[in-house]
Structure formats: structure tokens, C-alpha cells
């Protein structure tokens, strides 16, 4: 009896490349398609927003220097309608510029010129953060985390504040989840970076500062004097009910 042909493995993800430099686009498309990613491209911000809405990519690779608008504005507009992970590719190297992109809602930042292996590793990590987690057995006593201001439902992956659902990006959710699963305990900077972004992240403490500020803005009554998300300077962060 003839053996049935093996089904091809599914593509590891859909990538939207937003870049106006043809050589970089060509290199990215060739490398991504060689690894079986589905790839769409856009050469400006307006096209990127249309493609993101129509194609629903698993991750966006975004250059900040676009011809029609700044990439940071693209991130802000994208965040009003989508939680898709955004990986910035940019020649801008100052800390302030990186923080501005992260604060707008980017999930990671790679400085040009970049190594393809590093980029692909960060791409895989970004896609993993955006994937819905499968069902897992939970201790009923730890599924629902309640404070006087908000509630975190770990099973449903939802946050409610004042009777309304709070919209979190995948990266914000992962950071929140690690902290609320360790109430009252100091979670070190390196541990948070490893658990949220991946094992290759150890020194990007500016990511933690930006994302903790975002969680405080969304969940704390007084973000400048946080009650629940406490910074231990130089060490890490702690969640208090």
C-alpha cells in the first residue's frame, strides 16, 4: 500500500515587514521565507496600518524612519486597534529614542545594523509572547487576584478595573502575570527579563522601567505613588495586594 505523503509543517508565523529601504526588505524577505514564515511588506506607515488590519500578522517588524510618518506614530495608531507584537528595527541608538518607541507600545528594539541570527531569535520570542496560552490547571485560590482597585483573572487572562476590562498588550500581560503569581516577593530584573522577553535578555532594564510605568498608568490609582507595583531600586519589582 503506498504511503500517504507527509503534510508540510505549518508556517511558524505571519510577519509584516514595514521598511522603505529595498535592500533591507529583500534581505528580510529572503531570510524569513527561507524559514517558512509568511511575509507581507509595506513601504510606509499608511500601507502598514492597512496591511496590519487586513492580514492580521503575528508580528510586525517596523523601521522608524518611514517616508510618510514617524514609526513611533505608527506604533501608537496600531496600538489603538491591535495587540500584535511590534519589533522595531532602527538606526536610532539613543536611550531616549528607544524608550519613546517602547513607551508607544513596541515590544522590542533592534538597532541597525543587526545580525540576522539575533533578529530571528528576537522575532521568535515576540511571536511566542503574542500566542495565546493553552489551558492549564490552576489552583482555584490563585486564579483570581483581587485588590481594592482591580482584579486579575489568570485563567481568562483578563484584567478588570472599576467594572471595565483593561486592555493589555501581550508583553504587559506577561509582566503582570509573573508579578501577581509572586505576591509580596521580590522578582529580580534578570528573572523578569528572562521570563517575559526570553533567555537572551539580561541587561535591557529600560524595558522593565517602561512597561512597569505602563502597568501603573493602567492599574494604579496614583501611578506616581504606586500601591501595588513596587520598585526595589537596582534589584527588581514586587507586587503587593
Structural overview:
With 241 residues, this protein is α/β, with parallel strands linked by helices. The chain folds into 2 domains: 14-130, Rossmann fold (3-Layer(aba) Sandwich); 140-239, Winged helix-like DNA-binding domain superfamily/Winged helix DNA-binding domain (Arc Repressor Mutant, subunit A). It contains 9 helices and 12 strands. It has a 5-stranded parallel beta sheet, with helices on both faces. The chain has a 4-stranded antiparallel beta sheet with strand order 6-7-8-9. Strands 10-12-11 form a 3-stranded antiparallel beta sheet. A hairpin with a 3-residue loop joins strand 11 (229-232) and strand 12. The longest helix has 15 residues, at 116-130. The model has no long low-confidence stretch (mean pLDDT 90). Residues 142-241 bind DNA. This is Response regulator. Keywords: DNA-binding, Phosphoprotein.
Amino acid at each position: 500500500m503506498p504511503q500517504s505523503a507527509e503534510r508540510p509543517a505549518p508556517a511558524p508565523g505571519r510577519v509584516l515587514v514595514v521598511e522603505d529601504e529595498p535592500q533591507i526588505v529583500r534581505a528580510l524577505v529572503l531570510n524569513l521565507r527561507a524559514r517558512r514564515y509568511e511575509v507581507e511588506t509595506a513601504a510606509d506607515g499608511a500601507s502598514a496600518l492597512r496591511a496590519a488590519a487586513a492580514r492580521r500578522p503575528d508580528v510586525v517588524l517596523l523601521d522608524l524612519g518611514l517616508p510618510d510618518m514617524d514609526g513611533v506614530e505608527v506604533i501608537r495608531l496600531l496600538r489603538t486597534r491591535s495587540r500584535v507584537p511590534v519589533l522595531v528595527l532602527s538606526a536610532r541608538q539613543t536611550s531616549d529614542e528607544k524608550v519613546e518607541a517602547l513607551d508607544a507600545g513596541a515590544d522590542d528594539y533592534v538597532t541597525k545594523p543587526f545580525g540576522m541570527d539575533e533578529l530571528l531569535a528576537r522575532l521568535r520570542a515576540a511571536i511566542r509572547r503574542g500566542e495565546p496560552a493553552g489551558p492549564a490547571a490552576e489552583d482555584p485560590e490563585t486564579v483570581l487576584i483581587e485588590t481594592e482597585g482591580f482584579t486579575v483573572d489568570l485563567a481568562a487572562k483578563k484584567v478588570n478595573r472599576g467594572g471595565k476590562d483593561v486592555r493589555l498588550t501581550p508583553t504587559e500581560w506577561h509582566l503582570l502575570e509573573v508579578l501577581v503569581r509572586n505576591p509580596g516577593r521580590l522578582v529580580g530584573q534578570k528573572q523578569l527579563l528572562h521570563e517575559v522577553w526570553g533567555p537572551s535578555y539580561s541587561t535591557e532594564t529600560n524595558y522593565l522601567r517602561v512597561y512597569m510605568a505602563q502597568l501603573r498608568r493602567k492599574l494604579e490609582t496614583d501611578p506616581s505613588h504606586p500601591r501595588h507595583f513596587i520598585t526595589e531600586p537596582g534589584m527588581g519589582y514586587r507586587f503587593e495586594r
